[in-house]
Write a structure and sequence with these properties.
The protein has helices at 19-26, 30-40, 43-60, 65-72, 76-88, 92-106, and strands at residues 2-3, 6-7. It has 107 residues and is mainly α. Helix 3 crosses helix 5.
């Protein structure tokens, strides 16, 4: 498939390089993580990921589409896509939000 002038080959999940994910987990702190993603991604890519995360958090909190559009500026297509991932994906986002809730309750 084609992205921004590049032909992308989608590898089956079992063939995906684990090195990237191992490196992310190995980063020492939030600042190192921030710098790593700034080096790896364009500003547009980072903002898109941040927006999707914000949309997912608001959906998880039970907010409605119109409020999410107003808060994030995301399109209804993006909100629908994120909602589908939140409900039928690998549950990683849901796990992150549940973990954050647990940490907030501990404080």
């Amino acid at each position: 498939f084609h992205i921004g002038g590049y032909n992308m080959i989608i590898k089956p999940e079992k063939e995906v390089s684990k090195a990237l994910y191992e490196q992310i987990v190995a980063l020492k702190d939030k600042e190192a993580c921030y710098r790593f993603f700034q080096d790896l991604c364009s500003i547009t890519e980072l903002r898109a990921m941040e927006q999707r995360y914000d949309v997912a958090k608001l959906l998880y909190e039970g907010k409605v589409y119109t409020d999410i559009v107003e808060t994030t500026g995301a399109s209804s297509a993006t909100i629908s896509r994120v909602n589908r991932v939140l409900n039928y994906g690998k549950n990683a986002l849901r796990e992150v939000f549940e973990c954050m809730e647990e940490r907030a309750e501990e404080k």
